[in-house]
Structure formats: structure tokens, C-alpha cells
Amino acid sequence: MPTGRGLDEWTEILAATHLGFDIQPTHRTPGKFDGAVSRRRFGGLALLDCASLPWLGRHGKSAGGDAKEPIMGFQLVRKGVELVRDSGREVTLTAGDIVLWDGWQPTEVEVVEPFLKRTLIFPRERVLAVCPRLAEVDTLPPLGRSGPARLLARYLDALALELPTIDEAGGAAAADAALELLRGAVEPSVPTTRAAKREALRTDVRRYVRARLQDPTLCPETIARAHAISVRALHALFEDSGESVAALVRRERLRRCLEDLERPSGGSVTEIAFRWGFRDAAHFSRVFKRRFGATPSDARHAALARIGKESGAAGLDPGDGLL
Question: Which helix (H) or strand (E) holds 310?
């Protein structure tokens, strides 16, 4: 479009997908402006591909995009040159560069040459949950072209290909994997404080719990032993988190059970309960109803009815593969 109209629409597009920018033309902006963004959502994250001709934009502290919370972005440059200015520094990004940005920080961006980038957008809160030490720093650590950062970049390429075939549960798992890869790329470069060490240990405990939900012996004693701390220290670690260790284990187990109950091939209610570490079916039914407001059987029937309705709308036999 002509530059004036094109930049106005580009401002709206970036505000809906990335961050709110005050966009202006530069002497490099052509008379006809072109730009495009594609967005794929999964597990509370968004994978964006963005291409545009040169422009200059500034944004202040904001949530960013159409999200209702602050966001962070893991960005891979495919083509072109982009200048990023924040906190008194200027960074030049070219093809192959990888950077982590924080939408909560005022920034100036100038696209110098026709640009193509792929960005994974995270809710800021979820990044800090796996990389708590980031909350202690004023400037985000550079990722350069480190091995962990390149691994996450290749993972984004695989996601772009596979997301159209991934269901909701698969999308949630893909998002968790992306967060773990981001943690591996960021954590080694962040300085440590006492408060950050405490939060990092809590993060490790949560990760340990999620990996061992099928073990019926998982409990505060075994968790504390695995982390070389006392049970008392473990409880103290979580005393200001709003959730006890036992509640954490129960919540994660119930979440996995709900996922399996909503899958036609998940197995019987009893099989699912035992699979995820519950030792007593009656106890499982009680805590499940307390958490979700419905019995496991009710949740299973509601999921099958929903799948049958969706299959029927698509012209399929609602009974195919459901029982």
C-alpha cells in the first residue's frame, strides 16, 4: 500500500501480534510499503513469522499484542538488518542472529533492510517461572548463536511444520518443551542472587514432580531426598508460593488424568487413576470432583460427547474410534 496507509495498517497488525509501536517512515521506506505476519497459537504461546520493508518504531512499557499480560519474545532473524535500541545500547541484528526481548521494556526498532524473522511469543510470567533469575536483571542476557539457542531455533522450524497436525494436548506439551529449551538457552548467562536461587530450586522441584507423576511413592520425603534437603526445608521452600508440595503433586496428577479422560484412547477411569500415581480409585474420584466440579466419569462422557458432536459436524461417524 502507499506508505502512509501501509504504515497505519502495519501499526495495527504489529499491535495485534507483537507490541504496540509508534511507527514512522525512514529515508529507506519505499513509496509502496509491504509487510506480512502469520501467527500460529499453541499451549498459550504464539509462533510468528514477520516480513516487512524498512520502518522505524518505538514502544513503551506495555503488555503487547492482544495479550492481557506482558510478553517476551525469542526471535530468530532470517533475512535483512534490524537495529534495536534500549537501555542506552544499540544492537544490530542480521541473518542468523538470535535474541530474547522483553515487551515490558521501552525499545526502539529500525528495520534497515527488507526483513524476515521468526519469533516465539511467551507470556512473561511463564518465562520467569522457568527462568526466575531473569527477574533480577535489568538487561536480558545475549544469546548470540549458542548451541542451546540454535537448538530452540531449529525446534521453532519443526513447530512451524507440525503445528497444523497437533491437537490441544500436543500443543500444551510443545509449549512446555519450548519453555524448557528457552531455559537451557538463558539460564547459563544470568547472574545468581539468593532469592533467584530459591526460586530456581522451586522450579527444579516442580520439574522433578512433573517427570515422576506415575510413581505412586512420589511424596515430600522422596522429593526432599532427591534434592538433598530436609523435608522441613522443602516445605519452607514452598511456604510463600501459595501451594504446598503435596498440593502441587496432586494438582499435576489431576491435570494429567483430565487430559487422558478427554482422550478416547486414554483407558478406563481406574486405569488412568493408577497410571498417574493414585493408589485408590475412590480417593481419586473424590479429589477429582473437588478440583473440577465433576466426577471422572462425567468428565469422560462430556469429552466423548463433544468429540462426537465435532466429528458429526465434520461429516464423520461420531462412533469411529471413540470407544
Answer: helix 296-313
Task: State the helix-helix crossing angle for 168-186 and 147-162, rounded to 10 degrees.
Answer: 160
What is 103-138 written as a DSSP string?
TTS-EEEEEEEEEEEEEEEEEHHHHHHH-GGGGG-S
CA-CA distance, 50 to 117, in Å (whole number)? 5
CA-to-CA distance for 244 and 239, rounded, in angstroms?
7
* pLDDT at position 104 over 90: no
Which triple of cell numbers denotes residue 309?
458432536
CA dihedral 316, 317, 319, 321 (to 10 degrees): -50
Q: What's the rounded Cα separation, in Å, for the pair 201 and 212?
A: 17
Measured CA to CA, the distance from residue 264 to residue 260 in angstroms comes to 8
| Surface-to-core class of residue 25, CB atoms within 10 Å of its CB (0-12 exposed, 13-18 middle, 19+ buried) | middle
172 φ, ψ (degrees, to nearest 5): -65, -40
Which residue ranges form the domains of the chain, and what is each CATH number? 3-189 (2.60.120.10), 194-313 (1.10.10.60)
- The tens digit of pLDDT for each residue in 231-250 reads 999 999 998 888 899 999 99
Three cell numbers, residue 142: 545475549
pLDDT in tens, 53-77: 999 999 886 545 554 578 999 999 9
Rounded to two decimals, the pTM is 0.64
| pLDDT in the model for residue 323 | 28
State residue 170 phi and psi, 5-degree precision: -65, -35
Which grid coordinates belong to 277?
Answer: 500415581
pLDDT at 198: 80
C-beta of residue 84 within 8 angstroms of C-beta of residue 108: yes
Placement of cell 542451546 in the chain: 148
User: Residue 35 corresponds to which cell in the numbers above?
Assistant: 509487510
Short-list 99, 103, 190, 189, CA closest to 150: 99
Q: Which residues, in sequence order, are CB contacts of 186 under 8 Å at separation 6+?
A: 100, 131, 134, 141, 143
